[in-house]
Amino acid sequence: MNFFVRQIVTLLFLTIPLLAQDWIKQSIELTINTQFTKAESLLTARMEKGDSSLAVYFYYASVLNSQMTHFENKDQNDSFEHALQQVVNRGASQLEDTILPKKEKARTLFYVGSAYGYLAFYQGQIGAWFSAVKNGNRAADYLEEAIEADSTLWDAYLGLGAYKYWLSTKVDWIPFIPDRREEGIDDIYKTIRYNGHSKYMAMHQLIYILLDFGRFNEAEEFAEEIVAAYPKSIFMRWAHTHVYMKEKNFPKAIASYKALLDLIAGDPNANPNHKMTALGRLADMYARADSCGQALKIIDSLKSIENKKLISMNDEVRRLMNEVLGRCDKTKRLKGKTNR
After folding, report:
1. Which positions ≥6 away from 80 have C-beta within 8 Å?
2. What is the reported pLDDT for 9?
3. pTM for the model
């Protein structure tokens, strides 16, 4: 599981104002809980009934992107890019209207900026870094203009803040990139503080940022809040496990990975690879907590014939298996010397 990918994938998902539209909230809830088919059907039904709004195309792209990320494939990429292009083209056309009301202009700028952000993410995934940076800059420009038009568009601060932070952190191969990490964190806090519609997504994004920045206590508080709000969400639980893994709080990490595995087991849309990753990390936490008996039981289960193909494609799990075996062998030898 590539956590930086998860951060950027989900960065924009809840960053559009809901405008009191229940269907948008419903599509978000369904997607967060990995009910992708229902979310997709909800949105395609609206399009079939004649809805050609920026919102319906953006959220359709959001669902497709989340689904591809969850299953780690590119099966719906053409539809994803087509939907985003609809947002960009239609939004640009609307912005040509010089008498567009201020708040409507802000929302349109927001949709277009967020669509460019998604395009930037995809281009980064396939290694088209210069195009990714170009569209990322476009996204930031549109989001900043949206905030200038309506400074109370709190959800816009999430996308902009995340862009500022991760650009400062990850794109270190471009010279003269200023360090705007704290500014980015402050922006994301605005979405949370002013109860933006993207509040919980902002918490999710901020967890990874705060961990990267070394502010573990704040990350822990948000981790507990998001799993309380979405107790059945695998998406939210991954962030929760990551906090305690990074903190090296082994008892809480172990409990959280067990809860994650229960969610995966009960999810008809589960990605089998996620189970392998969660088991590998759980074994690692047990080994680090000097519970090698439990760790080695998990390693034995991962070595089974039924898991062979999945493990062969999961570099992280293979690495963790070797590390656990090495750690537990060292622990056994040390205990042997102590008992002599």
Report:
1. 61, 64, 65, 68, 118, 122
2. 47
3. 0.91
